[in-house]
């Protein structure tokens, strides 16, 4: 009987655990309204709060709630073939201590919207995406870590690009950089201290002299 009570207590505690879930998926969405209805219904029924952005190019989601509810949401999303291969980032954390913290984190209400851009870089979105050539290369987490770790060795190598410095541009917003920042010998880290990602382009325009001619990690 004691074991049963203990297990029941653990289950009750697990139900109260709070968490945050982040994920995005770039994929062609054939029916925006259908996906909007799913998110509104599912998140409301599970009492999830946060932000859901849907476009014809995919979804961008940040929601908070009880861990068990977040896990149920993940399973529901996985049942849709559109989200195959999605990387769900789920972390347990303390529930917002007060309304001010909850407001800053964006967890005071549920916002589900259909938008033109998943990640807004301007208050006036371009009518046509720019032609991009000579773009940067995506690095896995292991590759990114390796570049930072070997920065000192790279600086000592005599190559045609030896005059180039390795600079890390931390494009996260100030709420994220409060938690922790990169500190690597021989690598200068630039922190724009932006409130939101859409502030980044103007910062780059005003600080291009710090970036031009160097090898940039983001």
TrEMBL record:
InterPro entries: Rhodanese-like_dom_sf, TrhO, TRHO_N
All residue ranges annotated as the tRNA uridine(34) hydroxylase N-terminal domain in the record: 18-117
Pfam family, one: UPF0176_N
Name used for this protein in its record: tRNA uridine(34) hydroxylase N-terminal domain-containing protein
Organism annotation: Rehmannia glutinosa (Chinese foxglove)
């Amino acid at each position: 009987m004691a074991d049963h009570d203990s297990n029941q207590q653990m289950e009750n505690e697990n139900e109260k655990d709070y968490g945050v879930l982040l994920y995005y998926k770039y994929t062609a969405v054939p029916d925006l309204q259908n996906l909007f209805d799913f998110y509104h219904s599912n998140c409301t029924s599970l009492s999830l709060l946060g932000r859901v952005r849907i476009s014809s190019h995919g979804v961008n989601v940040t929601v908070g709630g009880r861990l068990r509810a977040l896990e149920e949401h993940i399973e529901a999303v996985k049942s849709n073939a559109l989200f195959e291969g999605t990387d769900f980032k789920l972390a347990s954390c303390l529930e917002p201590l007060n309304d001010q913290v909850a407001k800053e984190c964006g967890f005071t209400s549920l916002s589900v919207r259909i938008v033109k851009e998943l990640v807004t870089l301007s208050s006036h979105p371009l009518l046509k995406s720019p032609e991009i050539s000579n773009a940067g290369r995506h690095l896995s987490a292991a590759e990114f870590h390796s570049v930072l770790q070997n920065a000192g060795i790279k600086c000592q190598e005599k190559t045609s690009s030896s005059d180039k410095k390795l600079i890390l541009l931390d494009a996260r917003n100030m709420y994220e950089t409060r938690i922790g920042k990169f500190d690597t010998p021989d690598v200068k880290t630039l922190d724009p201290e932006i409130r939101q990602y859409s502030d980044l382009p103007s910062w780059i325009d005003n600080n291009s002299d710090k970036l031009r001619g160097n090898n940039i990690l983001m």
